Amino acid sequence: MTLELAVAPDTGDSGAPSPAPAARAGAGRAWLALFVTILTRGYRAFLLTLLVAALLPTLWSWSSYVVRSGSMAPALAVGDVVVAQPFPSSDPVPVGRVMVFENPAPSAGNTLLVHRVVEYLGRGEYVTAGDANRDPDVTPVPSESFRARARILVPYVGLPLVWLRGGDYLLLGGWLLLTVAAFVRACFRGRTDEDRQSRKSKKHKGTVVGRATSVTALVGLVGLIGVALGAGIGNGIVPAGAAFTASTGSSANSWTVGQFVATYNETVLADDPYVFYLVDEASGPAALDAAPGHRTGTFASIAAYRQADALPNNPGYSVRLGSTTGRLVSGGSAVADPDRFSLELWFRTTTTAGGKLIGFESTRNASSLLYDRHVLMDPNGRLVYGGWTANTVRRITSPQAYNDGAWHHLVLTAVPRGNQQDSVMYVDGDLVTFGTTTRISAYNGWWRVGYGSLPIGPGYPATAGFAGSIDQVAVYPTALGPGRVAAHYDAR
């Protein structure tokens, strides 16, 4: 009798047969294929969604603009697309909002900016700034230069254009290769056991569906690239960024919405100043000129920027000059021998050394060979105009001292009288002194505030600097009357 021993297959702990190695490997590939399919389809859906967001608004005559710099980071990154609504030139420009406008800088050419509007200067001009920039844009923007209002931010979609225009062909080629591969892979259908068993009966249908999906995906990809190219080529490369809320959370600045008119600025501009420096900058050396001539001035050796403002109802800042060489010098070409003018500024100090507040010199350097037409503070805190020559010294001096640490408004007007001047001094809106002052010299030069050249001797300041703060500096080619001086002070 022969006994045969049957050996049962290894069932493991569960008692069920273990899968064959080939079956296990097939299951792993199936899961990997499923993961890749989900990933590529998600990527495809993400890109097509961006395409629709960037392209659909153009059906209503909106425009798309590709961003190429980070001047408003982190709200907007390089490669994002700004979708903007056309802005009627008759509408008031909303302060605090982000607008698309023609770059007003004389050397900018036909370029566009996307920056935030931060202040209305009056007379149809606005100050703009990038949220990431420390200083506002130097040149004010006229209302007719605004093209559109930013409404929608579409991230990333403009990167292909940025790479193309920047010559980053390796990045562009790599992205195209990976994107095409992802779109093609996203068209494959995951197959179950049932799919495999019936694949022959469904082969024709699957081929048709796969081809249709592939065509749709590739059309979408081409469209995505096209909208980025079209946004940049059709509307110009916009060298800026944008945020779309009424305020920004940037650590550098915090602009808040509010359509306000700086009444003081508007009042000053109504009298056609030659230069008008708001001194609102966060740093130098450029000093924004709000007057129509846009003569950008120069700060030098400023002790502190963005100090407390002199004007309670007009948002802004002041600068503290310091006691050494701190100064602000006007920009543009040299002024030819001004003999009729008005000098205006706000000042605050507690100095007992005196100093030079504002005057005229033959250079923009720290000191000059020719200098006159200056208002000084003497060591007693009184304001003095005149007396810059050794001969025929004629001055007017305020009867009161103003080194009390409070803000004061100064206006000095001068008109020629023969070889001398008729001069009038106003402080805080009131006439405080007047008279005939020393003759002026004929030369070309620049206006300046703070440190400069001064005569030496009794009655003159101990230092050529001014240890105090200044704000809202304006120079006019005319002599303001008492009514206009009072109107300026009342608009504070």
Please provide a brief summary of the model:
Helices cover 24% and strands 28% of the residues. It has 492 residues and is an alpha+beta fold.
Please describe what this structure looks like.
The protein is built from seven helices and 24 strands. With 492 residues, the protein is of the alpha+beta class. It folds into three domains: 27-57 and 157-235; 64-154, Umud Fragment, subunit A; 263-490, Sandwich (Jelly Rolls). Strands 9, 10, 13, 14, 16, 17, 18, 19 and 23 form a nine-stranded antiparallel beta sheet that branches. Mean pLDDT is 79; it is low at 1-8, 227-245 and 249-253.
Number of helices: 7
Shape, per Cα inertia axes: elongated
- How many angstroms separate the termini? 124 Å
Which structural class do you get from the secondary structure elements? alpha+beta
> In percent terms, what proportion of residues is strand?
25-35%
Number of strands: 24
Fraction in helix: 10-25%
Query: Which residues form runs of ≥5 with pLDDT under 50?
Result: 1-8, 227-245, 249-253
The CATH class of the largest domain, by name, is Mainly Beta
Mean pLDDT: 79
Main pleated sheet: 9 strands, antiparallel
CATH architecture of the largest domain: Sandwich
* Total tally of structural domains: 3
**CATH T-level fold name of the largest domain:** Jelly Rolls
SSE order and pairing:
Layout: H1 21-55, E1 63-66, E2 81-86, E3 98-102, E4 112-122, E5 125-129, E6 141-142, E7 146-154, H2 159-166, H3 169-186, H4 193-197, H5 199-235, H6 263-269, E8 275-277, E9 286-287, E10 297-300, E11 304-307, E12 318-320, E13 327-329, E14 335-336, E15 341-349, E16 355-361, E17 371-377, E18 382-386, E19 395-401, E20 408-417, E21 420-427, E22 430-437, E23 444-450, E24 468-476, H7 482-490
Helix pairs in contact: 1-3, 1-5, 2-3, 3-5
